[in-house]
Amino acid sequence: MAGETPLMIVDGKGVVVQWSHQAEELLGHPAGEVIGRPVTDLVSPVAAPGGDAAERGGHDALRDGAAGVADGGLRVQPVLSEDGSVAWRIFLLPADGMAPGIESAVLDAVSTHMAGALFVVDEELHVVSANAPAQALSGASARQIQGRPLPDVWPLSSPGELAHILRQAMTDGTSMTDHVMRAEPKSVPQHTHTVSVLPLHDAPGAVVVAHDVTGQEKAHRGVQALYAVRERVGQTLDVVATCQGLVDALVPGFADVAVVEVVEPVVRGEEPPLSPLGRDVPLRRAAFGNSGGDRQARAHPVGDVRALSFPTPYAQALADLRPRTIALGPDTPWLAADPARAEAIRASGAHALLVAPLTLRGKVLGLLSLYRTKRSDGFDEKELALTLELATHTALGIDNARRYTREHTIAAALERHLLPPAPPSQTAIETANLHVADERGAGGWSNACTLPGARTLLVVGEVAGHGIHTAVTMGQLRTAMASLAALDLEPDELLARLDDATARLVRERRALPRGDPLRTQPLSATCLCVLYDPFTHTCAIASAGHPPPVIVGPGPSTQVVEPATGGALGVGEGPPYATTTVALADGDVLALYTTSLLSAVRGEDGTSDPQSLRRMLADTDRPLQDLCDDVLYRLRADTLPGDAVLLLARTRPFPADRVATWALDAEPTAPALARRHARHQLAAWGLDEDTAYDTQEIVSELVTNALRHGDPPVLLRLIHDRALTCEVQDRGTSAPRLRHARSVDEGGRGLFICAQLAHNWGIRYTNDAKTVWTEQCLPQQRP
C-alpha cells in the first residue's frame, strides 16, 4: 500500500469528492477539474490475460488520456460518511502488487512464527539463515549455523538425496513439497520429517522447510499395523500360520523384531491352560520376524519347544496377564536369567521390549514379544494399548485355528478307528491297500469282505465333505455295507440297500433342530462294489457315482472297466443300479480307488486319469504293497482334496484239491449218495470225525430239500478254505424257510438242523438258480 493517504475518495454515486496531490502528479489533473466528475472518466478496466476483464475479474487501472493505462493497480476500501452514506477510498498499489519492504516483513513473519524448521541456503548449499526451530533441529545457534553446509548442520540418513534435490530445484526452478526424509541426531532415536524445497527466483539459493512428523508417522504406523493384522491374521485355520501372519503384519512397520510363542498343547489343538501359566509349561516358538535380514540374531529357532526362564518379563506377563514395556540395556538385571535371549538382544541392538500375553477368556494361548532397535524410538502407552488390541485379535484367531485342529484331529482319529484293518488276503485273491488320510478328516474308505464260496467283495467309497460328521457318516455307511454283505446279495442290490440307508441318514439330518448346522449340510457319497468268484473267474461290478475300476493283466489285456453307473448315494437321482460282469484271468490286478487319489496322482506325462493309474500298475509281477508305494510316491499332497484310497486285488487260482463238486440225479437215493461223497472227501482232507458227521447231516438235509422243493439239476459242492462250506444248488425259485417244527410234525426240521450244526447259513440267488449254503468252523478255528 502506497501510504495511508487515499489517492481519491468517491461517493456512493461514483463521483469524485476528494483528490490528493499524488493523484494530481500521477494524472496531471488539478483537483478543481476532477472533483464532481464521475470516477469512470478517470479509470478503465484492464482485462486479465486471455479475455475480457468483466468476464475474468480484471483489475482497475488509472487512465490519462495521453499516456494510456498506468502500471499500477487500485485498492478500494469502503468508508462510512458523516451523513451515513457509503463512500469509497481508492489507494494506489505498486506495479508488483506489494509495497516496498513488505517482502522482507513477510519473510521475517514466516520465519518467526513458522512451527517447522526453515533454512535459507545459497547456491553452494551453505546456510544463509535459519529460524529458531531450525536452530533447535541442528542443535546450534544461528551464528554457529550460518555459512556451514546444510548436510553438516542437519544430519540426515541420506544427505546426498537432499543435496541432489536442492541443486535440481535451483537449476530448473521447480519446487518440491512434503518429501519424507529421516534425520538421525546422535542423542535421540530417528526422527521423520517432511521436507519442502522452494527455489529463489530473484537470487541464487533456495528455502528448505522441514516439519517433524514423527508423532504423526507413529500414529499412522499404528493404524497400518491394525489394518494389516486384521487383514492377515485369522484368514487361515492353522495355528502356526496365524502366528506368522501376525509377525508379517508387524515387522518392519511397527517393530524391528517380533516373536510369537504358543503353548505347546495349543498347536496340537488341545485345550489351553488357565492362568497363571506354570513355570514348567513348554512353549513352541511358532513365528519369528525381523528387519535385519537372515543374519539377524535369534535366541532359539522356530519350532523350538522350551519353558520360559524365570524371573523374566516374559514369564511374568503370562503369570499376571498384563502387557508391559521394558527398556533394554547392558545392565538390565533379568537378562542373566535367560542368557540365550540376552545374547540375541545385544547382537540385534534392541533397546525397547514390549511383551503382551495372548489370552482368551482367562486361558493362556501364548506370548507376543516386540523389539525395537536403535534406529527406532521406544514404545509409548498408545502403542501398548494398540498391541493389547492386536494380541486379543490374534488370540481369537489362534483359538479358532486350535478348535479347527482339534476337531479335525478328532475326525482323523475317529476315521482311523472306524476303518477296518488291512484286508487279509484270501485263498483265491491277494489284497493290499493304500490310505492317505486328509488332515482335515474326510470320508474315504475301503473294505474286502470274505463271502461264502471263497468269494470276495471289494468295496471302495467316499463321503463328500470334511470333519467329524463326515467321518461318522463314513463309519455308518461302512458298517451298513459290512452288514449287508453278510446277506450274500449281488452288488447292485447291495448298493440299492445302501442307498436306502443313506437316504435314511439324510432324513435324520433334515429332522434336526433348525439351529443345528448339520441340518443344512448336504450328505452325498459314492461307492463301488466288486464281487469276485474264483470258480467262474468273473467279477460283478456295480457303481454308485464312483470312478470305474482298472484291471491290469500280466499281458496286454489291460482295461479300464466302464460299468453301468447309478446315482450317488443319498442324492435320490440317477438310473437304477445295475451289475456289469467282467471275466478275469489268474494274475490280473484289480484297482479300486477314490476320486481324491486320482486327482492327486500325476503320471509321467502330467495327466491325471485312470489311464495314468493303469500305467503305474503295469508291472503286475511286483508285490501289491510295492505297487501301492509307487502310487504313494507320485501323490501330490498339495492337491489332495480328500482321503486318497487305493485297494488292489490280484487274482490267483483256487487249489483244485480243496474243492469238490458232484451232480446228483433226482432220485430218492441222492441224499445217501451225497452223504457218501461227503464222507469220503472229508476223510481225504483229513478232517475230524465230528466235523465229518455234522457235514453229512447238513448235506443230507440240503439235498433232500432241493429234491423236494427245487428243480433239477442238483449240484453239491464242498469247499475246504478258511471254513468248510457246503453248497447245494438247484434251479427252483421257491425260497427255503427256517421253521420250528412241532413235536408231532414228521418234517420241516431240515434248515433248523443245518442252522444248529453250522455257524452260518444263507441263500444266494442267480438269474437261473439258487444256492443254499452253510459254513462250519474247522477245528483250529473253534473256540
Write a concise synopsis of the structure shown.
The chain is 32% helix and 27% strand.
Describe this structure in words.
With 783 residues, the chain is of the alpha+beta class. The chain has 22 helices and 34 strands. It has a six-stranded antiparallel β-sheet with strand order 15-14-13-18-17-16, with helices on both faces. Strands 20, 21, 22, 23, 26 and 27 form a six-stranded mixed β-sheet that branches. The chain has a five-stranded antiparallel β-sheet with strand order 9-8-12-11-10. Helix 21 packs antiparallel against helix 22. The longest helix has 38 residues, at 381-418. The N and C termini lie far apart (124 Å). The model is unreliable at 46-61, 64-70 and 740-748 (pLDDT under 50).
What is the total tally of β strands?
A: 34
Q: Which secondary-structure class do the elements indicate?
A: alpha+beta
Assess the beta-strand content as a share of residues: 25-35%
Task: Determine the N-to-C terminus distance.
Answer: 124 Å
Q: Identify low-pLDDT runs.
A: 46-61, 64-70, 740-748
How many H/I helices?
A: 22
Main beta sheet, described?
A: 6 strands, antiparallel
Largest sheet, spatial ordering of strands? 15-14-13-18-17-16
Fraction in helix: 25-40%
What's the gyration radius in Å? 49 Å
Report the principal-axis shape. Answer: elongated
Average pLDDT rating: 81
Task: For this entry, give a set of tags.
783 residues; alpha+beta; six-stranded antiparallel sheet; six-stranded mixed sheet; 22 helices; 34 strands; 32% helix; elongated
Task: Explain the layout of strands and helices.
Layout: E1 8-10, E2 16-19, H1 21-27, H2 31-34, E3 43-46, H3 53-56, E4 59-64, E5 68-69, E6 73-80, E7 86-93, H4 102-113, E8 117-121, E9 127-130, H5 132-138, H6 142-145, H7 150-153, H8 159-172, E10 176-183, E11 191-199, E12 206-212, H9 214-232, H10 239-250, E13 257-263, H11 264-267, E14 283-290, E15 305-306, H12 313-320, E16 324-327, H13 339-348, E17 350-360, E18 363-373, H14 381-418, E19 429-436, E20 443-451, E21 455-463, H15 468-485, H16 491-510, E22 525-533, E23 538-544, E24 550-552, E25 559-560, E26 565-566, E27 580-583, E28 589-593, H17 595-600, H18 610-616, H19 624-633, E29 644-651, E30 659-664, H20 670-685, H21 689-709, E31 714-720, E32 724-730, H22 750-757, E33 760-765, E34 770-776
Parallel strand pairs: 23-26
Antiparallel strand pairs: 1-2, 1-7, 3-4, 4-5, 6-7, 8-9, 8-12, 10-11, 11-12, 13-14, 13-18, 14-15, 16-17, 17-18, 19-29, 20-21, 21-22, 22-23, 23-27, 24-25, 24-28, 28-29, 30-31, 31-32, 32-34, 33-34
